[in-house]
Amino acid sequence: MSSRGRENRDDPGSSSRCLTLLEKQKYIEDYDFPYCDESNKYEKVAKIGQGTFGEVFKARDKKSTKKFVAMKKVLMDNEKEGFPITALREIRILQLLKHENVVNLIEICRTKATVNNRYRSTFYLVFDFCEHDLAGLLSNINVKFNLGEIKKVMQQLLNGLYYIHSNKILHRDMKAANVLITKYGVLKLADFGLARAFSVPKNDQKNRYTNRVVTLWYRPPELLLGDRNYGPPVDMWGAGCIMAEMWTRSPIMQGNTEQQQLIYISQLCGSFTPDVWPGVEELELYKTLDLQKGHKRKVKERLRPYVKDPHGVDLLDKLLQLDPNHRIDADTALNHDFFWTDPMPCDLSKMLSQHTQSMFEYLAPPRRPGQMMRHYHQQINQMQAKPQDNSLIDRVY
Ligand SMILES: Nc1ncnc2c1ncn2[C@@H]1O[C@H](COP(=O)(O)OP(=O)(O)OP(=O)(O)O)[C@@H](O)[C@H]1O
Ligand SMILES: [Mg+2]
């Protein structure tokens, strides 16, 4: 896709050294990318994201000035081999997925290769623009979701997950910043930069996927314990963390290290034992890590003061199951009473119409743990400074 690929094969600079720089420039500029428009058909309006893999801009289509897009730059820094394989994977997956609750990839475009950029085009993934991301919305205290609206968010999120899982795709980076919401209240799963296709393992042939995926605070226990034969439940754990965040307004388990994340999980969901999670003892890190014993499961108890709605508490309990085989799947979750009792899921557009400014994680001040969370984190830190009977430490969000 890049002009460099062509340079390697019949670069005028190497095969016919007598070409002047101007001729060389013309040669490359004339190179035709029939399915890849130039990025100058869009006009950048503002930077809205800075991810691990590049910057994201809000931009306007010059032809129809009312149409906004999001342009995600493909990071080419360390690429000696042309277009990065990780971006190719993201594009292939996005091209496959077409659903109301999955972000829509419009096209890939590129800057012109010129002498100024040493004939290296910059590529962009161009998406339909969404006005907000969920992390941005949750960090703004003026944005208030009622129970019906929370149900609508979760219903759309689970619809998106049901669709991608049915298409044998794992997202592997569920978090509030990767959940977009349009001003009309339509939720879109975004950021397929870590996504991959999966197959259901046969008994004798286990998958060996990398477990270094998912942002730490949303990473499920099986990945933290080294599982490489995982599946859709990894995304369901993230859905549970996001659902709790709809009430707590900040991520519920903010570990600084993998070890600390495991501690937070066991203090909320109970210690990892073969009783509650048959087969956990076979995971690579189960024996090598010093896992805390004796923690009781406290999911319902801890989240009830925030969530209040008993069906909501019950669904959270089913999403935040330690054993991935017992974790609820998207289909079953969509049939949960939470979505079928009053107040029913309701449209978000009215609430969102009160906010005229876009809200993105990138533009928001860092989210701090709330008062009660701070109290809890202080306790954890004290506990880590002086080893003691951890079962006495109370978890408070
Ligand atoms: N279509 C879109 N409309 C509006 N904003 C978007 C869109 N796509 C991405 N963004 C914003 O840009 C941010 C970063 O995008 P994305 O998550 O795809 O990139 P990334 O580099 O993989 O990020 P990270 O590594 O931080 O997860 C998102 O969190 C969101 O705020
Ligand atoms: Mg992201």
TrEMBL record:
Gene3D superfamilies xrefs: Phosphorylase Kinase, domain 1, Transferase(Phosphotransferase) domain 1
Pfam families on file: Pkinase (PF00069)
Residue positions binding ATP: K72
Transmembrane stretches, start-end: none
Localization, UniProt: Nucleus
InterPro entries: CDK, Kinase-like_dom_sf, Prot_kinase_dom, Protein_kinase_ATP_BS, Ser/Thr_kinase_AS
Name of the protein in question: Protein kinase domain-containing protein
Organism taxonomic ancestry: Eukaryota, Metazoa, Ecdysozoa, Arthropoda, Hexapoda
